[in-house]
Amino acid sequence: MGRKWNNIKEKKASKDSATSRINAKFGREIYVAAKSGEPDPVSNSALKVVLERAKTYSVPKHIVDRAIDKAKGNTDEVFEELRYEGFGPNGSMVIVDALSNNVNRTAAEVRTAFNKNGGNMGVSGSVAYMFDSTAVFAMEGKTADEVLEILIMADLDARDVFEEEGTTIVYAAPSDFSTVQDALKAEGVEEFSVAEITMLVQNEVELDDASKEQFEKMIDALEELEDVQEVYHNVEL
């Protein structure tokens, strides 16, 4: 499990260094979540998950408020949730999640990012079967045993609970995101370094230096696209 966690850490670190781009992506994601139901996280679970995740990236309050206010307005801007699957060098697999108001543009841009960097797009389902949608939490101040006891007392299951370098990590079912987080908060966990629903690959692959360099260029090209929200892969970092 530690290797998967390393990928999550690396991914978050790279995002933390790209503040303006990340804020823009969160603004769009918050708007879409707020527009999907009531613009209130108490009654809108999708919005609650996005807002909790935004906290871990220190998204400014004015970005959050502006996106929610936009959702409350009469704007008719519509974004579609899209998922693309593809392949990189030497058995690497990639999932790309996007929010788009122009599907043709987004598809063309994603395809170009793959093709120009040694990859190619696959059909729906060609990659996703190798990944599991998972709620992930990371925190300090509680041991794995303490967290496991909290979850047991709350009658909640976890896919895995472990510690690494002073951080306790929890993998749980996506449907349990809010209940797991609420249970941990009730027992004194005030801050999470990670709190999100992600796609964890079942088996990772290692690439040689040349292939890894090409692969990283492909991932960078995908993540820089305006419509792309998340990129998941099976490469060990």
From TrEMBL:
GO terms for cellular component: cytosol. Keywords: Cytoplasm, DNA-binding, Transcription, Transcription regulation. Its main location: cytoplasm. Gene3D superfamilies: 1.10.10.200, 3.30.70.980. One of its GO terms (biological process) is regulation of DNA-templated transcription. InterPro entries: Integrase-like_N, TACO1_YebC-like_2nd/3rd_dom, TACO1_YebC_N, Transcrip_reg_TACO1-like, Transcrip_reg_TACO1-like_dom3, Transcrip_reg_TACO1_YeeN, YebC-like. GO terms for molecular function: DNA binding. Residues 3-74 form the TACO1/YebC-like N-terminal domain. Residues 79-235 form the TACO1/YebC-like second and third domain. Signal peptide: none annotated. Coiled coil: none annotated. SUPFAM superfamilies: YebC-like. Pfam families: TACO1_YebC_N, Transcrip_reg. It is found in: Cytoplasm. Belongs to the TACO1 family. YeeN subfamily. This is Probable transcriptional regulatory protein DFR61_10416.
